[in-house]
Amino acid sequence: MKQRAEAGDRVAQRLLTEIYSDCLFVNQRRDAFISILDARKRRLSDKSYIRFLEQATRERLATCDAADGGGQWDMGPYNHWYTEAAKRGDLAARALMRPQELKRYDPAETVRLLEEVLASGDPAAVFYFGITLPRDDAVTPGDPTEALTSGALASWSWMVAACRMGYDCGPTSRVMVNFCLDMDGCTGEDMDTHVRRRQPTDAERGELERRVGEILGLIKGQ
Fold first, then answer.
1. What is the C-alpha to C-alpha distance for residues 160 and 212, in angstroms, rounded to an integer?
2. What are the residue ranges in the chain where pLDDT is below 70?
3. CB 191 within 8 A of CB 173
4. What is the pTM of this model?
5. Alpha helices, DSSP H only, in the chain?
6. Could you give the 3-state DSSP secondary structure of residue 202?
7. DSSP string, 40-56
8. For 98-147, what is each residue's pLDDT tens digit?
């Protein structure tokens, strides 16, 4: 992966950044990482959840042992490779860098990026665009993207749409492993199922489905 990234492969550069991100805490504080997950395991009663957590932990440790020989690093490699990927035109990397570059929410910039993401048909770009949306109900008055980018379901809608476009959101994907390791989401579900189950009412599940359908319709309509 690193050889491909150093050769200028923009997707490899973004994927390498994800590894650096996933392993930053693991390699700096291995004992603390293991201790936290052991405590989480003791809180679980479902044996299938425990098995998933144990498997996810083993795989994360193996990945981080292989990353630069299990060495420690700061945020430098993460920032470097995402910047390189974005410079080379990786739209997902550009979407993820957006909150770091903007001093405040910019509706016009959001419109430009949204149009690029829809036109690209790139599941990774759709997923990362969703990650960067505001996680509350705040809406900028007059924002033309309001219907697609605001509200409590905005981020989830884009991420689920990306899953249905082919982004890896399966039970053992990086997305769901991170849900397990970071947020106790060790259910062994795919993301689509997990997000729909998180919605407390039929109305909210219906609204999520409507939003996902709208996003997918706009992408297919390009």
1. 7
2. 99-107, 134-145, 221-222
3. yes
4. 0.88
5. 2-6, 10-28, 30-43, 47-66, 76-87, 91-101, 107-120, 123-131, 146-149, 154-165, 174-183, 191-198, 202-220
6. helix
7. HHHH---HHHHHHHHHH
8. 766 655 566 677 788 889 999 999 999 999 999 888 655 544 555 556 77
